[in-house]
Structure formats: structure tokens, C-alpha cells
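Page 37, continued from 36.
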């Protein structure tokens, strides 16, 4: 990036708001992006797991262009529009909750979690929420409170809202078994908080920011059982696991466990800002008139884009693609584990794969610096990736599910060479 660009950034946006790329992005096409210096990259960051259907998917673009011929905004609370209702209907039909559901549309992941917990507290008339260590739920105060990873999200920003508790999330590679995690939930309910005053569990089917750690079906089924037994609502934060990432349309499909409420965002609208709260109708309908709302939520443009995204899943057989990608990626990355002692673990549902980098496979000591060097090497060779995890030592794959197979293979080859030459 030229000094001029760096200076403009420094002069105009807060220093804390840093970017990984060193040059302005000027063009994106499916899984590829180009910067101002005309460097071409395969984009396995995908706008942070947003571009499941790629940059400027033609089906999404067409819907947005059509919408822009008519109007760009109408606050749903004042003037309802058909696309919002179509999106809600599609999500109600597709999200795997067998009871009738209703869907409320907002702008961002954090806003969807805010609303899901707000609705859960209102419905249950209980105040406590149990979230999990390593979980990430957003940057607003409630969602920071729910987040179970301090640095950089919470450090210095306290105090956080009360009545939030954190239990262990299973992490097999670091010896937190399902039993240990469930035991910590039970201990919280025995020693720290009265179960009759717990409104909800908020849990990711697979940790995103927390290190791409999948929860087992058994763990989530046990949470479901505890929720049923104690009248606690089960909220799945599917902001990152939704829309094909985990190998099925939603994380709940992958683990075959149904929540009472789920939150969706990121991949929902192909890069346009939209998020959703889908929940059982009796819960969603319990709120008094105008108790929930959002000026920009259900933006007609974003809703048009979301319908385009669903069309891509239906017409371009995206779930089949995703499974094929996952197979190729797992084979290559697990194979690489045998060649490099820096790779401690390769895990995750579908294409939501995390590669945990360690000093060596015996000591398992987290090696953030090595992870960052690998990421840097990959960037130099045309592949974009970012890290995650409590120790920052997990490299995650968040590329479009529409990436052509030859580019999936190209990305894996760049990754392999970067690891081997570290
Ligand atoms: C699981 C999860 N929940 C919530 C959020 C917050 O979403 P947003 O940044 O759209 O507010 C994120 C964002 O990374 C996420 O991964």
C-alpha cells in the first residue's frame, strides 16, 4: 500500500480498526479478489465467512438490480414489503425446528443475538443467560457480555451486563471432553444460578472466533435435554455456521439437534447486511406490539439479495458442492498433518475447517507466531486466510462454497507450500 493510502487510513479511521490486507480491494469475482496494485488473491476469508455464495454472485446481483429499479428502503414497521415476508417464509420452512416458526429480520449478527436473548427473557420471565467459554457473539454490550473470549473483544470495555454466566465448551484437542463441559453446566446450575431463573443457553454449534472447534452432537443433545428438563430455552448462534458452512444448510441440520431460537447472519444475503432471528411461533409471538423492531432491519435490498442466495443453494446444488469441498480440504489438510509437526489438529464441520498450529505435535504448545507466518506466506503467494482461537493459533478456512474446484486445489497447494517452507 502506498504511504498516501496508509496516511489517509490513519487520519480518518480509529487506530483500533485495523485491516489485514495492505492495499485497498478494488474488485471481487466469486472466490477471487484484486487489490489496487492488481495483485490477485483466492479469498478464503470471504468477508469473514459472509461470502458463502461468492463475490457478486450473478443470481444475487440480478435480484438486487431488480429491487433497485423500484425502491431502496422502507422501514418494515411502517411500510411492509413482500421480499421481507418471502425471506421470513423461506427461513421458517428451511430452518430445522419442527414446530411452527416465525422469523424477525435485523441488520447484524450482534443485533440478532440481542433480540434472541431479549425475546428469551421476555418469554420465560427469567433473567440469567448461560453462554460458553470461547464463544463470540458480537460487539454490543450484551453480546460482549455473552462473549467468552476477552482479548481483544472485552479488554478495557467493562462493566458488562449482569446475569451472564459462562460454562466450558468442549475442546477435545485440549482435553475438555463433552463430559467435562456438561459437568460445568450442571455445576453452574447447582452452585451459581437457580435453574428456574435461567432464560437461555446461547451456544455456537461450532466455535467461530473461538478457534473453529465443533461441538459434538452428543454435547448439544445433552444441552437440549437439560433445557427441556429445566424450562430453559436453547438458542443456537448460527451467525457463522449458517448457510452451508457446516456441510448442511444449517448447523442444526448437521448435528441433528433443534434449538428453540436460532440467529442467522453472515452468509444470509451474499454480502448485503441482513440477519435473522428464527424461533418457535409461541415464543416469537409472545412479545407485545412494537416490542421488537429495527429501522434498517429487513432492508429491501438485502432481502432481495437473500432470495438470490437461496436461489443459488437451490439451483446450483450448493450443498453438494460444499460436501465435495469439505472432502477435498479434509484429505489435503489431514495429509499435511503427517508431513508437518506444526499442525496439531485439523477439525470442523463441512468446510468450516480450523487448522491448529502448535510448536510441535508432542508438546501441543500453541504457536500463534508460526500461524501468522504461515498466513503471511500464503498472502504473498496469493491466498487470503485469517487466524482465530483463544491463543490466536488456529488458521481457519472461510472461502465461498461456490469456489471452483481448481481454485480450492490451488488454495490448498499454496497452504501446503507455506506450511512446509515455514
Ligand atoms: C458466531 C457469531 N455470532 C455473532 C457475531 C457478530 O456478528 P456481527 O459482526 O454481524 O455483529 C459473529 C461475527 O463474527 C459470529 O461469528
Amino acid at each position: 500500500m502506498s504511504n498516501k493510502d496508509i496516511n489517509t487510513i490513519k487520519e480518518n479511521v480509529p487506530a483500533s480498526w485495523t485491516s489485514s490486507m495492505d492495499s485497498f480491494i478494488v474488485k471481487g469475482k466469486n472466490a477471487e479478489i484484486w487489490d489496487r496494485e492488481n495483485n490477485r488473491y483466492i479469498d478464503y476469508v470471504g468477508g469473514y465467512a459472509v461470502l458463502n455464495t461468492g463475490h457478486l454472485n450473478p443470481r444475487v446481483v440480478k435480484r438486487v438490480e431488480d429491487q433497485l429499479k423500484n425502491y431502496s428502503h422502507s422501514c418494515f414497521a411502517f411500510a411492509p414489503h413482500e421480499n421481507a415476508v418471502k425471506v421470513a417464509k423461506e427461513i421458517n420452512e428451511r430452518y430445522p425446528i419442527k414446530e411452527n416458526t416465525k422469523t424477525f429480520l435485523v441488520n447484524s449478527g450482534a443485533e440478532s443475538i440481542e433480540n434472541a436473548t431479549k425475546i428469551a427473557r421476555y418469554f420465560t420471565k427469567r433473567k440469567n443467560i448461560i453462554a460458553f467459554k470461547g464463544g463470540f457473539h458480537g460487539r454490543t454490550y450484551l453480546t460482549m457480555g455473552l462473549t467468552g473470549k476477552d482479548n481483544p473483544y472485552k479488554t478495557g470495555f467493562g462493566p458488562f451486563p449482569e446475569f451472564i454466566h459462562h460454562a466450558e465448551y468442549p475442546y477435545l484437542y485440549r482435553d475438555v471432553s463433552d463430559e467435562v463441559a456438561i459437568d460445568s453446566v450442571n455445576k453452574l446450575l447447582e452452585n451459581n444460578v437457580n435453574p428456574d431463573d435461567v432464560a437461555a443457553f446461547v451456544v455456537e454449534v461450532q466455535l467461530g472466533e473461538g478457534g473453529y472447534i465443533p461441538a459434538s452432537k452428543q454435547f448439544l443433545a445433552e444441552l437440549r435435554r437439560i433445557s427441556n428438563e429445566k424450562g430453559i430455552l436453547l438458542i443456537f448462534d448460527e451467525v457463522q455456521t449458517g448457510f452451508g458452512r457446516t456441510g448442511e444448510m444449517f448447523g442444526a441440520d448437521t448435528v441433528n439437534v433443534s434449538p428453540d431460537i436460532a440467529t442467522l447472519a453472515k452468509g444470509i444475503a451474499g454480502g448485503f447486511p441482513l440477519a435473522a432471528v428464527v424461533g418457535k411461533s409461541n415464543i416469537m409471538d409472545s412479545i407485545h406490539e412494537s416490542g421488537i423492531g429495527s429501522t434498517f432491519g429487513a432492508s429491501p435490498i438485502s432481502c432481495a439479495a437473500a432470495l438470490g442466495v437461496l436461489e443459488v443453494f437451490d439451483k446450483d446444488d450448493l450443498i453438494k458442492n460444499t460436501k465435495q469441498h469439505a472432502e477435498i480440504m479434509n484429505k489435503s489438510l489431514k495429509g499435511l498433518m503427517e508431513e508437518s509437526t506444526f499442525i496439531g489438529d485439523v477439525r470442523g464441520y463441512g468446510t468450516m475447517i480450523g487448522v491448529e498450529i502448535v510448536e510441535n505435535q508432542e508438546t501441543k504448545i500453541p504457536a500463534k507466531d508460526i500461524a501468522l507466518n504461515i498466513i503471511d506466506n500464503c498472502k504473498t503467494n496469493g491466498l487470503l486466510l485469517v487466524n482465530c482461537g483463544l491463543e490466536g493459533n488456529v488458521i481457519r478456512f472461510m472461502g465461498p462454497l461456490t469456489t471452483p474446484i481448481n481454485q480450492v486445489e490451488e488454495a490448498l497447494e499454496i497452504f501446503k507450500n507455506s506450511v512446509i517452507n515455514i
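The chain has two domains: 3-56+317-420, 61-315. Flag for discussion at group meeting. The chain has a mean pLDDT of 97.
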